[in-house]
Structures
1.
Amino acid sequence: MTMQSINTPLEIRAEKRNSYMTNLQCSGCGKIYSIEQIHTFCPDCQSTLLVNYDLKSARQHLDRDEIARRLKGMWRWHEVLPVIDPANQVTLGEGDTALLPIKSLGETLGLTQLYVKEESSNPTGSFKARGLSAAVSRAKELGIKKVIIPTAGNAGGAMAAYAARAGMQSMIYMPNDTPHANIVESRIVGAEVILIDGLISDAAGMAGIKAREEGWFDVSTFKEPYRAEGKKIMGYELAEHFGWELPDVIIYPTGGGTGLVGMWKAFKEMEELGWLKNKKRPRMVAVQAAGCAPVPLAFQKKAEFCDFWVNAQTVASGLRVPKSFADHLILHDIYESNGTAIAVEDADLLKAQNELAIAEGIFAAPEGAATLAALKELVAQKWVHPDEKIVLFNTGSGLKYLDKN
Ligand SMILES: *Cc1c(COP(=O)(O)O)cnc(C)c1O
Ligand SMILES: [Zn+2]
């Protein structure tokens, strides 16, 4: 021990951690859970567990400008990610996606500051990579060897890829009409893919049973605490891009809602870290397809939970989620942000996909294109103003859906 460390107070010596994660907390009843054990969701009230960090201590030791100089990628934010030992980070190069100014389409819509956060450049062609990188890394750290997921498509492909890289076994339940690319990308990295005649909600039931019977770890959306942590980094990236001020409006295609809930959590964390220049928070807009719109319907009714959407149907397979496990959190965050929820017809989101491609050269996933269709509606309603900073999320590549459209 050096002279200096003898004289250093304990709190200050406990600095410079790879992660400032402290514990897990139930988003329903507030109960605290230890990070030492493997947890799924709260056994008491069946709500999602979220990760807490010692942000007071992080605030003293973290320098946002130093983080900006690190090697690009999601893991440069490791202090606010849930992996203790850097050796457990499983990465394929996710994160630090482009934030593209959308001048020409913006002009057509009468908007001066329109952007697309271009998530299709993530590994496996969608932003699911971020969440699964975090979840598989943490699973590895906790000694998990087998991961299972029910998926509408992209989450399965991402989980399979990260599991392969981590040397884990993977099993995937997906509807038999999931885009072909999702099946191929999962199988080629070694996942066992089970196609079912049903929706993601049916797949979830089957994966849950399999997990219990054979000891697979279930990484279903919001049924484990860590996927949302990877997704929240999109919020950190936005703040950094905009010079530590947040945009006015974020338009997000919502299925399970990890990105929306994750980013809202990130904004709160950054406030506690003292990183944000002001109190301005974006209005969060959840976009769903008219053929599966539990969130817009609940929003209209000012409800706290969603009703299960019967006969869900849309080409935007990632939005075919009849009821998110974290519907309460999605709705809470929309209300708290003074946001809204919009449903768009498949015909309109496909038209928007074409427009974004022609005008800007972006071949968006149908889910991502849905945000443009929703924006048109919000412009018509004068819900957005001409000079507001508006960010659309293109969550995946159109190339993954060639058999469906
Ligand atoms: C999964 C998915 C979504 C929905 O994301 P959530 O975070 O689950 O709401 C949107 N777009 C694409 C391309 C997806 O794969
Ligand atoms: Zn609880």
2.
Amino acid sequence: MTTESTATETTRAWVDVDLGALVRNGAALQRYAGVPLVPMIKADAYGLGAVACARALERLDPHGFGVATVREVEELRAAGIERRIYVFSPLLPGDFAAARAARAIPTLGDPAAIAAWGQSGGGLWHLAIETGMHRAGLRWDAMADVADLVRANPPEGAFTHFHSAERNDGSWQAQEARFRDALAALPVKPTLLHAQNSGGIVRQTPSPWSFVRPGVFLYGVGAGDGAALTPEPVAHVRARVLELHDLQDGDTVSYMATWRSVGARRVATLGIGYADGYRRALGNRGPALLHGARTTVAGVVTMDMTMIDVTDVPCRTNDVVTLIGRDGTELITVEEVAIVADFMSPYEVLTGLRQRLPRLHRESVA
Ligand SMILES: *Cc1c(COP(=O)(O)O)cnc(C)c1O
């Protein structure tokens, strides 16, 4: 199943996506939870390619998939994905016709939107119950507001979403208690109940719910301190060495001349920059792997090129450098890069990788 890559795709910089690791991460979560998965493949599978990731995850026989927009459902349908697809952002009535045409299952919490869904033709929907995040859904203590609507057009499912399960701070248990109170207050009990994201899944075995909704763990980002499981890396960001520069004492590197050679040093210019999603905040700090050895970004990251210090590692033009992921026995995790990049969210590092980097979907990545 390895996708054949063209010379152009691996010339400058790209992302190797390890589909075998993706599926093993999903299988580990499914074993631990003991219920089916609804992999979250919104935002193009956190930047790694929704269609390819969905096709690979089909091997786990998931209950369905989760996305954020109707457009994302349409893309998956056009690629032949036939399973259920839930949309986990509130739909406006203007989206309803397109959602039905794409066989999307909306998640609704606003009474007016629930009424409009019923009046415009109805169909499967899940009730979003808000238990502490105040982002989307109906407050856990306001179920009376929808009692009549729920009797008239019962939701097939109901769910909530945890705001900090990965922090081990007791918050998900409090949210779960509110969720249970809300379910008890509904006049009709929905058949499908769900609550857990990655951080929630790795802290409860077996799951008490109908299915689980993992996202970031599938893509190789761990679920915080105290997580029972650790994911395998999935995304490997590579860039080739375009040129080598031998510097003399006092020579400077990149814009603003923030890096200055002490004695004779050697830097390699990589074909990747902030326009590829390799953050400018990684200047003078970002870790890099060359032939399995660690080195560091030298100077400011520029739009299309980034320099690294290769004084201590043999390096030639065309060599492949790893900026996220594995090379030999060394690993740069997404979390490490996020911390070095001024404490970004690892979610933002992944979804921030730009389209100029081709995603190469491989069954395994050495
Ligand atoms: C994104 C999302 C998830 C997955 O969250 P992770 O932290 O990436 O596992 C689950 N449920 C909902 C409603 C989401 O929006």
